[in-house]
Design a protein that fits this description.
Elements (H helix, E strand, L loop, with lengths): L19 E4 L18 H12 L7 E3 L6 H5 L4 H13 L19 H20 L5 E4 L20 H11 L5 E5 L6 H6 L6 E8 L23 E6 L5 H19 L3 E5 L17 H18 L4 E4 L10 H12 L10 H11 L16 H22 L8
Parallel strand pairs: 1-2, 1-3, 3-8, 4-5, 4-7, 5-6, 7-8
Helix pairs in contact: 1-9, 1-10, 4-5, 7-8, 7-11, 8-9
């Protein structure tokens, strides 16, 4: 397949995207907690379908997940936990002590193999970048950022972003910046690397005062040699595009540039959308296109273009997730989604899933009611002030 070379609208003048890789195999759809569970594998399937019908997928290098040995998972997860997942995978039953049970993380047959394959997809994206096969790589089935070393959490069995980061550290990468824009705090990745000075974890999310997992506050900044390598920007409910994007700009780019990472890893959960049923932020798809440009710029100006992206949460699995994630993929390719979704894609969603979608790619702008605006704006400003005050001096930045 010929290399994709397009002007980079999100990067500096003259920057080029280089080869873009997407990791995809239908076997990734086996990571499935069942038809009543909010984390639908259809969100990934439809993202790939939209990428195909919007002529994005044909312009990428599609690669398969890597087969991962247990040692790769053991860089992140305890051996006892790996054994517990394998047991639950065989029996369909798991222990509450390891985070399994009705609700968020119901065990299912084949769970270990399915979760391992998701990790293999994200590591394949990392490998493509490290070996020069791609400059940007996207693992849409990945982003399972809540999994802890010894327990499942928040729909996440194995923590694929952490597995890929640990794999890259063991393959010679010295400094990695991880940016998480899921509406939920990226607690698992933070916990796994909280004492690792080579990894900067940044999470921009709805405050844990209002939302699972109840963590991710501005005073969580790391300790010891890793002091200053944890950054959290917790935002209040009803934060909209016009407040979110300036908050991101006030914190994230300066910390990433000061840290000087070699590779940028991002978790692109889009459950921050104003229609998402599991959270309370107020973003539109415009925000995702804007974030894509900002992340693309950081990749080209800080990490020589090396950008590993994963999917994540998103519970408007048909109406929002494919548009959001394809906006990121389009940015990687130096283009934009069309103003209207392809007719063939709309027909496929209707016929296969029984969902009728609005054909417009962009959302209408959502405005806060005036009596809420001042309160939310004040809370956002306070969050920015706290994170900058806690972290900027540690990186030699002025507050």
């Amino acid at each position: 397949m010929s290399e994709v070379e397009h002007a980079c609208p999100g990067g500096p003048p003259g920057a080029m995207t280089g080869q873009v890789a997407v990791v995809w195999d239908e076997a990734l759809l086996a990571y499935d907690f069942g038809p009543e569970h909010p984390l639908r594998p259809g969100r990934v399937e439809l993202t790939v379908a939209l990428a195909r019908e919007a002529s994005l997928l044909s312009r990428t290098k599609v690669i398969e997940p890597m087969a991962l040995p247990g040692a790769d998972l053991a860089r992140v997860h305890d051996l006892d936990y790996l054994a517990a997942v394998q047991s639950a995978s065989e029996s369909g039953r798991g222990s509450f002590s390891h985070g399994f049970g009705p609700g968020d993380n119901p065990p299912f047959p084949g769970m270990h193999e399915a979760a391992t394959l998701v990790c293999g997809a994200t590591v394949a994206a990392a490998s493509a970048i490290l070996h020069g096969e791609a400059l940007h790589a996207f693992s849409p089935a990945g982003g399972l950022h809540h999994a802890m070393p010894a327990r499942a959490s928040g729909f996440c069995v194995y923590n694929d972003p952490a597995v890929a980061i640990a794999w890259m550290l063991d393959h010679g990468v010295e400094r990695i910046a991880y940016i998480d824009v899921d509406v939920h705090h990226g607690d698992g990745v933070q916990a796994i690397f909280e004492d690792e000075p080579r990894v900067l974890t940044i999470s921009v999310h709805e405050s844990g005062r209002f939302l699972f997992p109840g963590t991710g506050f501005a005073n969580e900044i790391g300790e010891g040699d890793a002091l200053g390598t944890i950054a959290n920007l917790p935002l209040p409910p009803s934060t909209t595009d016009d407040l979110y994007l300036p908050a991101f700009d006030a914190v994230v780019p300066k910390l990433v540039r000061a840290f000087e990472p070699e590779i940028l890893v991002t978790q692109l959960g889009c459950d921050s959308h104003y229609t998402d049923p599991l959270a309370h932020l107020g973003l539109t798809t415009r925000a995702y296109a804007e974030l894509a440009g900002r992340l693309h710029d950081l990749a080209h100006t800080v990490t020589s273009g090396r950008w590993l992206a994963t999917g994540g949460g998103g519970y408007q699995w048909a109406a929002v997730v494919p548009r959001a994630w394809c906006s990121y993929l389009a940015e990687m390719l130096g283009t934009r989604l069309p103003e209207r979704l392809p007719a063939a894609y709309l027909a496929e969603v209707s016929e296969r899933f029984g969902v009728e979608l609005d054909p417009n790619t962009a959302d209408e702008v959502v405005a806060l009611r005036s009596e809420h605006r001042a309160r939310v704006e004040s809370q956002v400003a306070r969050a920015i002030e706290m994170v900058r005050g806690n972290l900027f001096p540690l990186h030699g930045l002025s507050v």
